[in-house]
Design goal:
This protein is mainly alpha-helical and 375 residues long. It is built from 21 helices and 2 strands. A two-stranded antiparallel ribbon has the order 1-2. The longest helix has 17 residues. The chain is globular, with a radius of gyration of 27 Å. The termini are far apart.
Length: 375
C-alpha cells in the first residue's frame, strides 16, 4: 500500500512541477536570448545547456531578475550549489518580480518552522514557491482556513508544497471538498473525536484529494455499498485508502472486481474479504493484475494461497521473483508455506528473511537428550 501510495503521489508531483503556474503574463518573448540572463545564470554555475534544451524559452524573455532571485535565496540560507540546482531545474524563477518573490517568502514563513526548512521545500518544489502574485490572496485565505481546521503548520506546509493548485484556487472550493469528506466520514459511523486525525492522515497521504470534485467520493462509496460492503467496512476502506479513494471510479473498480473474482474463482462475499485484506487491489487495471497473477502461478503459487495473502499482489512480478529465489536458497518453499514472508517493503522483507535464517541456524533443543556435565 505504501509503495502504491508513493508511486501515485510521485506521478502527480511530477505533473505539478512541469506545469508553470502562470508566472508573469507581461514578459516579452524575443527570438534572441537575453544575454544578461545567460551571463547571470552562468555566474551562478547553472547548467545553461540543460536549460536551453528543456526550457530555452526562459532565456528569451525580458525582463528577468536572476541576480535578485539568487540574492533572496542566499538571504534565507541557500548555498550556491542549491541555488544552482534550483535555477537549473526551474529557470522560470528568474521571471518572478523581486517584490512578488519577497511576498512569497513572507507568506511561506508564516507556516514554515524556519528558513532552513523553506530552502529545502524550494529545492524540492520550486514551482510551488515561485507562483504569480495574483494568487497571494487565495493562498492566505486557504492557509487561514486550514489553520481553523486545526491542521498544524507542518501539514499545511506539505500541502502547499505538494499540491499548490489547492492553495491558489478560491478557498470556497476547498471548503466544499473538506465538508464532503467530513460528512462522508460521519455518515459511515466515524467518531467526531477522531475526525481531525483522520483528516490529517488523509490530506498528508494524498493532498491532491482536494482537487477532486466533491461528488467523486460519494459515488465511489455508493458503488462499494452496492457491492455489499457494510457501513463499518466502508469506513475501514476509506481509512485504509485515505485520499486515494478519490482516484478511483465505479467503472474501473467494476472491471477490477469482475476480473479478480473470475481469476480467483471466489464468491462475492469471499471477494469482499479479499478486498478488506488488500484494499489496494481496487486500483490495479486488468493488465497489471494479469501479469502478477501469472507471475505467481509460474512460481507454483496456488490461487488459494493468494486469497489467504492477497497483499502479495501489491508487489511487482520482478520483486516477487527475486524474493522467492532468495528464500529458495535457504530451503523456504513458497509453494507449500505461507506467503506472508514475501510481503512488505524491502526493509520488511529483509527482517523476515533474517528471522528465517536465524531460525534455521539455531540448534534444536532436545528435552530428553542427556545433558553434558563437567568432568
Amino acid at each position: 500500500m505504501l509503495r502504491l501510495a508513493t508511486a501515485m503521489l510521485c506521478l502527480q508531483c511530477r505533473h505539478v512541477t512541469s506545469s508553470p503556474l502562470n508566472l508573469r503574463p507581461c514578459v516579452t518573448l524575443t527570438s534572441a536570448e537575453n544575454q544578461q540572463t545567460v551571463k547571470a545564470l552562468y555566474d551562478l554555475s547553472v547548467d545553461i545547456q540543460k536549460v536551453r534544451k528543456l526550457k530555452g524559452w526562459v532565456l528569451r524573455q525580458s525582463p528577468a531578475y536572476t541576480v535578485e532571485v539568487a540574492d533572496l535565496l542566499k538571504a534565507i540560507g541557500a548555498s550556491e550549489p542549491i541555488i544552482s540546482r534550483i535555477l537549473t531545474v526551474y529557470p522560470e524563477a528568474v521571471l518572478c518580480n523581486p517584490a512578488q518573490t519577497l511576498a512569497q517568502k513572507d507568506l511561506w514563513m508564516s507556516v514554515c518552522p524556519n528558513q532552513k526548512e523553506l530552502v529545502g521545500i524550494i529545492e524540492k518544489f520550486p514551482a510551488s514557491f515561485f507562483t504569480s502574485s495574483s494568487h497571494h490572496g487565495n493562498q492566505r485565505n486557504n492557509i487561514t482556513y486550514f489553520q481553523n481546521l486545526n491542521l498544524n503548520k507542518r501539514i499545511i506546509t506539505k500541502l502547499m508544497a505538494s499540491a499548490p493548485q489547492s492553495f491558489i484556487r478560491p478557498v470556497e472550493q476547498n471548503e466544499d471538498m473538506v465538508c464532503n469528506l467530513q460528512q462522508t466520514y460521519q455518515e459511515l459511523g466515524g467518531e467526531e473525536a477522531n475526525m481531525k486525525i483522520w483528516l490529517q492522515k488523509l490530506l498528508t497521504q494524498n493532498p491532491f484529494v482536494l482537487l477532486k470534485p466533491p461528488e467523486v467520493l460519494r459515488h465511489n462509496m455508493l458503488f462499494l455499498r452496492d457491492k455489499g460492503f457494510t457501513t463499518a467496512q466502508l469506513l475501514y476502506l476509506l481509512s485504509k485508502l485515505k485520499g486515494f479513494v478519490t482516484d478511483l471510479n465505479p467503472d474501473s473498480m467494476r472491471h477490477t472486481l469482475a476480473y479478480s473474482q473470475d481469476t480467483l474463482g471466489c464468491s462475492e462475499a469471499e471477494l469482499r474479504d479479499i478486498i478488506l485484506k488488500c484494499p489496494a487491489l481496487l486500483y490495479y487495471p486488468e493488465d497489471i493484475l494479469a501479469e502478477r497473477f501469472q507471475g505467481l502461478c509460474n512460481a507454483g503459487i496456488s490461487m488459494y494461497q493468494i486469497t489467504q495473502t492477497p497483499t502479495v499482489l501489491e508487489l511487482t512480478t520482478q520483486i516477487v521473483s527475486y524474493r522467492i529465489q532468495r528464500l529458495k536458497l535457504h530451503g523456504y518453499d513458497v509453494r507449500t508455506a505461507s506467503l506472508d514472508v514475501l510481503n512488505g517493503t524491502k526493509k520488511d522483507f529483509e527482517t523476515s528473511y533474517a528471522k528465517l535464517q536465524l531460525r534455521r541456524e539455531r540448534p534444536i533443543f532436545n528435552p530428553v537428550a542427556p545433558l553434558k556435565g563437567d568432568d
